[in-house]
């Protein structure tokens, strides 16, 4: 009694067809699922950034925040007194740029504060 032809689950060939040669770029299956070299466990990634542990804590000197606030406040006062025409001469752009420069220097100093 002849057996009816069935799909071969390993080659996934339709019934009645012979074995096909693998095409270029295809890999022959060897049956191995895990890579050679033993059991290696990779840590699962949580998707959240974990910062590195600091080796030493940096502390700024006391003059850094003092200089920052002095530059910010004096720069603001120069701009305000320029528009109120309290400074010598009329409202000048040089006073405005001086005040803006002091405020910018205050922000740069703020980035150095730890």
What keywords describe this structure?
0% strand; mainly alpha; elongated; 35% helix; 114 residues
Distance between the termini: 88 Å
User: What is the strand tally?
Assistant: 0
Q: How does the overall form come out from the CA principal axes?
A: elongated
Q: Report Rg.
A: 38 Å
Biggest beta sheet summary: none
- Main structural class: mainly alpha
Number of helices: 2
Overall helicity: 25-40%
Q: Could you name the ranges where pLDDT drops below 50 across 5 or more consecutive residues?
A: none
Oligomer: single chain
Mean pLDDT over the residues: 80
Order of helices and strands: HH
Explain this structure to me?
- This protein is mainly α and 114 residues long.
- The protein has a domain at 63-111.
- The chain contains 2 helices and no strands.
- Helix 1 runs antiparallel to helix 2 (93-111).
């Amino acid at each position: 009694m002849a057996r009816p032809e069935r799909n071969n689950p390993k080659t996934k060939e339709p019934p009645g067809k012979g074995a096909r040669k693998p095409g270029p770029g295809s890999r022959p299956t060897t049956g191995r699922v895990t890579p050679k070299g033993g059991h290696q466990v990779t840590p699962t990634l949580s998707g959240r950034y974990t910062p590195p542990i600091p080796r030493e804590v940096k502390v700024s000197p006391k003059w850094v925040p003092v200089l920052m606030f002095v530059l910010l406040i004096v720069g603001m006062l120069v701009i305000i007194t320029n528009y109120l025409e309290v400074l010598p001469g009329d409202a000048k752009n040089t006073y405005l740029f001086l005040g803006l420069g002091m405020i910018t220097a205050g922000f740069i100093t703020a980035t150095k504060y730890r």
